[in-house]
Each structure stands twice: as structure tokens, then as C-alpha cells.
Specification:
Blueprint (H helix, E strand, L loop, with lengths): L4 H18 L5 H8 L3 H13 L3 E3 L7 E3 L8 H9 L16 H26 L3 H11 L15 H4 L3
Antiparallel strand pairs: 1-2
Length: 162
């Protein structure tokens, strides 16, 4: 089963950062609309991101979501670790009855490879910040889209949780 928590959380944080740069308001309804995701999924991802100080949100009619610290201080690794928590990239098979050299040793061997691959991935993510990612998106943009769409929160699609 594919896990969309990290790419969705990354898009959320980048959208909040872009909204801050352009002076726009960011809410879970606006994020859900922009990500074409269920608002409850967005709110679920906000829990670890808030817990880890990546985003902060204010409640109420004029509430909004902001970055918890400067974009240059939030790495993609921070976001990944926050929403994935302790789930491994690859899971090894459970121990099997040792019937040959392979079945007797594959579990520890695969685990060592998976751990190495995970550490390499985390190292790549640690080198990139939210500010870097936003700058790269702007530099390589070919969409001609507005940075943050203006969305009336009374819009029907937000009420329907689109």
C-alpha cells in the first residue's frame, strides 16, 4: 500500500510557506482544496506537524496556519520524520524457518540494506529546506498558475470536503 503522508505533508508545508510569502491566509479548508484531499486527512497530518513545531495554527473565524519556524530552518527530513514517525521505508519479511543459507540469513541481511537505504534517504532530505524547495519550485515553474489561489471559504467545494 502506498503511503501519501510525506508528499501530502510536504505540499501542505510548502503551500503554507508560499501563502506566508504572498501575505495570504492558509486554513485546513484551503489546503484541502489545493491538495484535492479530504479535509480530515489534512487535519490528521496537521497533528504531528504541529506537535513538532513545523506549523502552528490559530483557531476561530480568523484562524490560520503558519510555519512554526523560518522556512530556512525546516528541512524536508523534519517533515518526513514528523509524519512518518517510526514507519520504515521497507519492511523485512518476518523470520522464516531456516532451511538453507538464504532463509537463515535473509532477515538480518535485508534489514541492514533497508537501514542503509533509509539513512541515505534521510541524509538527502536533511540537505533541503522548505525555503530551498520553494525557491526551486519558483525557479523551475512552467505552470503559469498563481502562487496561492484565492478561495472563498464559503465555496461549495470546500464545504463538500473536496
Amino acid at each position: 500500500m502506498l503511503d501519501y503522508r510525506f508528499p501530502t505533508a510536504l505540499q501542505m508545508v510548502l503551500s503554507v510557506a508560499m501563502a506566508e510569502q504572498t501575505g495570504k491566509r492558509s486554513t485546513s479548508a484551503i489546503l484541502a482544496y489545493g491538495l484535492e484531499a479530504n479535509p480530515s486527512f489534512i487535519r490528521k497530518l496537521m497533528v504531528p506537524l504541529t506537535r513538532d513545531g513545523i506549523i502552528v495554527s490559530t483557531l476561530g473565524r480568523t484562524g490560520s496556519i503558519h510555519l512554526g519556524r523560518p522556512a530556512a530552518e525546516i528541512t524536508l527530513r523534519d517533515i518526513y520524520i514528523s509524519v512518518i514517525e517510526d514507519k520504515k521505508i521497507w519492511a523485512s519479511r518476518p523470520d522464516v524457518t531456516p532451511r538453507c543459507l538464504v532463509s537463515a540469513n535473509l532477515c538480518w541481511y535485508f534489514k541492514s540494506i533497508a537501514d542503509e537505504a533509509e539513512q541515505a534517504s534521510l541524509n538527502v532530505l536533511a540537505k533541503r529546506t522548505v525555503a530551498d524547495a520553494l525557491n526551486e519550485l519558483k525557479k523551475r515553474d512552467t505552470s503559469n498558475c498563481t502562487a496561492v489561489p484565492v478561495l472563498d471559504e464559503a465555496d461549495d467545494c470546500c464545504k463538500k470536503g473536496r
